[in-house]
Amino acid sequence: MPNRKFQGREESGDDFIYVDLLPDVKRPRQFNVNIILVVLVAVFLSWLLIYWPLSGRQEELDAALEQNNDLTHQREQVNDEIEGYRIDPDLVNFMEDIEGVEALKKDYYPPLEDFSNAIEFIESSGEIYRVQYNAVNDTYTLTVLMAQQLSFNNVRIEMLEIDYVESAEFEQVFSPSGTSRYQGTFTIEVSDDAF
To answer: How many CA atoms, within 13 angstroms, populate the side-chain half-sphere of residue 168?
Structure first.
């Protein structure tokens, strides 16, 4: 209670003296609470306006730096491999040479059809068992199965009738065990210009 009544002895009972013992003064506790509230609002606003956008940008920067480090490391590894294997970049760039390589492409399937037709003309049960082609010498090596041993010479003659065949020889005619057929190997040299 800030106000107290005081009654003197000499005075009548109706007169009172009012003494204000606690004047109206702002208490220090109220002042500190307002400052704390202002500081808290300032900290929240600075977090909202500065730290929050900055943290998002910082994450983007960290991701970009991490990717940059990975790519830099990968580039260093590739350069080390190139130096280790001594790869000449000019030898790797061969795309312009593809047209030259395609000009060298040849279709070797039609001669096989002609050889098969020559074998079937002499002996209908004859068949080509295995085919090898030597591109350096332009020679075919055919392993042929036929029912008669004399048919090999006739097939050789028939193959020599083909325009692009320069020579045809057969060897190693034998009968595999357990069969009634004969197996022989033809070596056929062909003209490269025919294809």
So the answer is: 21
